[in-house]
Specification:
11 strands; alpha/beta; elongated; 7-stranded mixed beta sheet; 2 domains; Rossmann fold; single chain
C-alpha cells in the first residue's frame, strides 16, 4: 500500500561520480510524474543544515543527463556527524514540509542517512553513487563504469608511449580499499599485472612476472596499481622494482581525480535513471533506510546497514581471466 509522500528532498554527498546528475534528474522527473513536490538540497548535508534548499522542476534538470559531477554540489559534512548538526538539518527538513529524503552517495553518506532516519523517523532511501563499486546490494554503483572507461582510455594512451620507448609504466587508479577499477581497467587495458588490496602480491612475484614479460619480448609493460594496495603507492612500488630491474625505463602515472570527471557512459546514465525512479517508487511504497540497487538486471532494495557492512568481493573469475591474459 502506497505511503502518503507529498514532498521529497534529494541531495548528493561525498565524492562525486559521473551519473549523479542523471540520478537527480530521474528523481525529479519521477516525483513530478507521481505529483510529488521535489526539493534540491545543495552541498549535501551541509546544505540541509544551512537551509540551502530550493524546489526543483522539470526544467531545473534539463540538459544535465550528459554532465559529469553533480549540479547540486557535494560535500563531506563534519557538522552532520553531531547531534546538534542533525537537529538543525531536521528543523530545515520540516521547515520545507519534506516527507522523505533521497541520498545519492557512498558508504559515509549512507551511514549519515541511516542515523538521520532512525533519530527523527525520516523515510530515507539511498542511491549508490561512487566510482569505487564497493557497496553490497548492487552489481554496479553509479560512476564505476565511467571511471573504468576513463582509466582504460588513459592506459591506451600510456601504452602508445610505453611501446614507443620500451618503457615500464605503473599506473595508479582509484579504489581505496577495493580493486574493482583496477581489475576492470587491467583487463580492458591489457596490463601485464595488477596489484589490488584484496589479493596479496609480493614484490618478488611482481618482479618474476615482469621478467617473464621481458623474456617474451613484450612490446610494452603496464602495471595497474590500486591506490590502497598493500605494497604501497605506485611510486613506492616503482622505486622498489627499479632496484631489481634497472634495465627498464620506469615511469609512473597517477590518474587520481581524473577518473571522477567526464561525461557518464550510457551504462551509468541508464543505471542512474533506473535507480532514481526506483528510489521514488520505494518511498511511495513505504520503504525506508534501504539502498536501491540493480542485481542481475533487477531492482533490489537492501537495508543500508547491510549495504555498508557486507564486504563486496572482487569477482574471482575476472581476476583469474586477468592473470591468464597478462602473459
Amino acid at each position: 500500500m502506497a505511503t502518503e509522500i507529498n514532498r521529497i528532498g534529494v541531495l548528493t554527498s561525498g565524492g562525486d561520480a559521473p551519473g549523479m546528475n542523471a540520478a537527480v534528474r530521474a528523481v525529479v522527473r519521477a516525483c513530478i510524474y507521481y505529483d510529488i513536490d521535489v526539493f534540491g538540497i545543495y552541498k549535501g548535508y551541509d546544505g540541509l543544515i544551512a537551509d540551502n534548499i530550493e524546489q526543483l522542476y522539470v526544467r531545473s534538470v534539463s540538459n544535465i543527463l550528459s554532465r559529469g559531477g553533480t549540479f547540486l554540489l557535494s560535500a563531506r559534512s563534519q557538522e552532520f556527524r553531531t547531534e546538534e548538526g542533525r537537529k538543525k538539518a531536521y528543523n530545515n527538513f520540516r521547515k520545507h514540509g519534506l516527507d522523505a529524503l533521497v541520498v545519492i552517495g557512498g558508504d559515509g553518506s549512507f551511514t549519515g542517512a541511516s542515523i538521520f532516519s532512525k533519530e527523527f523517523g525520516v523515510p530515507v532511501i539511498g542511491i549508490p553513487g561512487t566510482i569505487d563499486n564497493d557497496l553490497a546490494g548492487t552489481d554496479f554503483t553509479i560512476g564505476f563504469d565511467s571511471a573504468c572507461n576513463t582509466a582504460r582510455e588513459a592506459i591506451d594512451k600510456i601504452r602508445d608511449t610505453a611501446s614507443s620507448h620500451d618503457r615500464l609504466f605503473f599506473v595508479e587508479v582509484m579504489g581505496r580499499d577495493a580493486g574493482f577499477i583496477a581489475v576492470n581497467s587491467a583487463i580492458g587495458g591489457g596490463a601485464v599485472a595488477m596489484i589490488v588490496p584484496e589479493h596479496s602480491w609480493s614484490l618478488e612475484a611482481l618482479i618474476k612476472r615482469l621478467r617473464k614479460g621481458a623474456a617474451n619480448q613484450k612490446a610494452s609493460n603496464v602495471v595497474i596499481v590500486a591506490e590502497g594496495c598493500q605494497l604501497g603507492s605506485a611510486y613506492d612500488i616503482a622505486s622498489q622494482v627499479k632496484e631489481h630491474l634497472d634495465y627498464f625505463d620506469i615511469r609512473v602515472t597517477v590518474l587520481g581525480h581524473l577518473q571522477r570527471g567526464g561525461s557518464p557512459t550510457t551504462l551509468d546514465r541508464v543505471l542512474a535513471s533506473r535507480m532514481g525512479v526506483a528510489a521514488v517508487e520505494g518511498l511511495r511504497n513505504g520503504l525506508s533506510d534501504v539502498m536501491v540497487g540493480v542485481i542481475n538486471n533487477k531492482i533490489e532494495y537492501t537495508p543500508i546497514h547491510e549495504a555498508i557492512k557486507i564486504e563486496k568481493r572482487l569477482d574471482d573469475e575476472e581476476f583469474r581471466i586477468a592473470k591468464i591474459l597478462s602473459i
